[in-house]
From TrEMBL, chain A:
Gene Ontology terms: cellular component: ATP-binding cassette (ABC) transporter complex
Protein name (database record): Metal ABC transporter permease
Keywords, in A-Z order: Membrane, Transmembrane, Transmembrane helix, Transport
Domain of life per record: Bacteria
Native organism: Phormidesmis priestleyi
Organism placement in taxonomy: Bacteria, Bacillati, Cyanobacteriota, Cyanophyceae, Leptolyngbyales
Compartment(s): Cell membrane; Membrane
InterPro entries: ABC_BtuC-like (IPR037294), ABC_TroCD (IPR001626)
Record-annotated membrane-spanning stretches: 13-36, 56-80, 92-112, 133-153, 179-206, 218-239, 245-265
Membrane topology label: Multi-pass membrane protein
Annotated Gene3D superfamilies: ABC transporter involved in vitamin B12 uptake, BtuC
TrEMBL record, chain B:
Name of the protein this chain belongs to: ABC transporter
Source organism per UniProt: Phormidesmis priestleyi
Ranges of residues in domain ABC transporter: 5-239
CDD domains registered for this protein in UniProt: ABC_Metallic_Cations (cd03235)
InterPro entries: AAA+_ATPase, ABC_transporter-like_ATP-bd, ABC_transporter-like_CS, Metal_Ion_Import_ABC, P-loop_NTPase
SUPFAM superfamilies: P-loop containing nucleoside triphosphate hydrolases
Pfam families: ABC_tran
Keywords assigned by UniProt, alphabetized: ATP-binding, Nucleotide-binding, Transport
GO molecular function: ATP binding; ATP hydrolysis activity
Highest taxon above the source species: Bacteria
């Protein structure tokens, strides 16, 4: 029995996939807290699509994928920010920039025909194709981003919550904008191979939304969200081996299941509490809130 | 005595359209003043310009005779934004909001120091909401939220605090309590500028008002400043001003439509 359960770990590619998956899940979970509380889900979703253009272009030009896609993503984020101030609605600006960039990727792929397989990997992720270099990259990005979050926790929190007041209190909001755009680009580029451009957003949004249901505190949410991301990635990839389904889809479905269960549970709890309070009110009509 | 905060020939706008121009304003240490004008008259823009958040088109802002440079945010100033601009669903507690204000003292790392906590508690106590320190901001009442944000503005021991429509979302009783609290802080030496569009329950209680509508219309003691002509110029409609000893009551001068509407009442209620 134990033999059967441990069998996937006999394969080196599986161990690599697992390691990268868990790190990516943890990192996306932690970063997701900023993204959902700042209402940036659509930007993150769009950016992951935009990066396809950069990824394909750097492949064709023979540039390093991480460098090419990273610069592309960062520039896309800056262009969105630039357009937003110019009588274009913010969400429309995201739609324009990111789909144009995505379409560029599709256009190049269709002329080269040769890499339909890697195109599929780019869209839906492919944990099996992960090289030892990819593991290193994800590990380094995880350590760097988590350290940045730790060091800049205060200004990033203030900037996320209340940009203008943060500025009055001396937070350099321009630096925070730039820092966060770089962090977001690094996050998406480094984890893109695991879930692909279409599914990555789920690893960012679902654990953080689940954590929001469980906590009212930013720091606690980060810990819960990171933990959910890592655990869900572990079991998602593990199950995908036995069920023989795409690992990306498996991770997303599992985290959706966790979200649904937590949502149901917190709703039941709230209803229970409400009933308790109203019963309490009923039995002590003379007690008034201060 | 030199002014603590001064706007000299200030003009501001967004994109192509100007919001106000030729604003000359001085606030002296210990002054409590109200910026009074209708919604959309540029009060928020003026407050943001005084804080260095909006770049002026022309003119300058001086703090203690020092010119505020572009992109610079002034020390020793507190800011309480309009409650409508705050995301009340954001996952922070009242105490955490107040500790954010300690940024200049403690810039890095997540863990609050003992001193952070002591100061946050002390300020929450000072504004009368210590008991909600651990509560999430979304759970607080409108009055409590306003006080928590006031506490954050006071963290850096500012010389002056600017409040944008602090009374707009609360009922009469809470408005009155907040005015009392501000009066108390003012008595302790804090200079305060607050904006309001509410004449009767706020503006007439203040010792100094600045009538504002895309520029300063008049300023001074409300007893002198609130005349039908200045009010008409500020709010764009004719008004009646009644003095009753120390009180001022202001109302629109159009004939009441109550009589006319009364005839529309369902017969059972007439």
């Amino acid at each position: 029995m134990l033999d059967l359960l441990l069998r996937p770990f006999e394969y080196e590619f599986f161990i690599r996939a697992m390691g990268v998956g868990v790190l990516a899940g943890l990192l996306c979970g932690v970063m997701g807290v900023y993204i959902i509380t700042r209402h940036m889900s659509y930007i993150a979703h769009g950016l992951s699509h935009a990066i396809l253009g950069g990824a394909v272009l750097s492949y064709v030009l023979g540039i390093n994928f991480y460098f090419g896609a990273g610069v592309w993503g960062f520039v896309a984020a800056l262009v969105i920010q630039f357009l937003t101030g110019k009588r274009v609605y913010a969400d429309a600006a995201i739609g324009i920039v990111t789909t144009a960039s995505f379409a560029l990727g599709v256009a190049i792929i269709s002329t080269y025909r040769s890499f339909t397989r890697s195109f599929e990997a780019a869209l839906f992720g492919n944990v099996l194709g992960i090289t030892p270099t990819d593991v290193w990259i994800v590990a380094i990005v995880t350590v760097v981003l988590l350290s940045l979050i730790f060091v800049f926790y205060r200004p990033l929190l203030f900037w996320s919550f209340d940009r203008e007041v943060a500025q009055v209190h001396g937070v350099s909001v321009f630096s925070m904008d730039t820092l966060f755009a770089l962090m977001l680009a690094a996050l998406i580029v480094s984890t893109l191979q695991i879930l692909g451009v279409t599914l990555i957003i789920s690893a960012i949004v679902i654990p953080a939304s689940t954590a929001r249901l469980l906590s009212d505190r930013f720091g606690v949410m980060m810990i819960i969200s990171g933990a959910i991301g890592a655990v869900v990635a572990f079991f998602g990839i593990y199950l995908s081996y036995y069920l023989d389904i795409a690992s990306g889809a498996s991770v997303v479905l599992l985290s959706t299941l966790v979200f649904t269960i937590v949502l149901a549970w917190t709703n039941i709890q709230r209803r229970h509490r409400k009933r308790f309070v109203s019963m309490d009110d009923h039995t002590h009509p003379s007690v008034k809130a201060p | 005595m030199f002014p603590l905060l001064e706007a000299k020939n200030l003009a501001c706008g967004y994109q192509q359209s100007p919001v106000f121009s030729h604003v000359n304003l001085s606030l002296y240490p210990g002054q409590l003043a109200g910026l009074v004008g209708p919604s959309g008259s540029g009060k928020t823009t003026l407050i943001k310009a005084l804080l260095g958040l909006v770049k002026p088109w022309a003119g300058e802002v001086c703090i203690q005779q020092q010119r505020l440079q572009a992109g610079q945010t002034p020390f020793k100033m507190g800011y309480v934004p309009q409650v409508e601009t705050v995301d009340w669903n954001f996952p922070v507690t009242a105490e955490e909001v107040v500790m954010m204000g300690r940024y200049r003292k403690q810039r890095f790392f997540p863990f609050p120091s003992k001193r952070d906590r002591t100061i946050a508690r002390e300020l929450l106590r000072r504004v009368g909401v210590e008991h909600v320190a651990k509560r999430s901001i979304g759970e607080l009442s409108g009055g409590q939220q306003q006080r928590v944000f006031l506490a954050r503005a006071l963290v850096g021991e500012p010389d002056i605090v600017l409040l944008d429509e602090p009374t707009s979302s609360s009922d009469l009783h809470i408005q009155h309590e907040l005015l009392h609290l501000l009066a108390e802080l003012n008595a302790q030496g804090l200079t305060i500028l607050l904006s309001t569009h509410d004449l009767n329950s706020v503006a007439t209680h203040l010792p100094w008002v600045i009538c504002f509508n895309h520029g300063i219309v008049a300023q001074g003691d409300p007893m002198d400043v609130f005349t039908p002509s200045t009010l008409a110029e500020t709010f764009g409609g004719s008004m009646v001003v009644n003095h009753d000893g120390d009180r001022i009551m202001i109302a629109g001068s159009m004939t009441s439509v109550r009589h006319q509407m009364k005839t529309n009442l369902p017969a059972v209620l007439r």
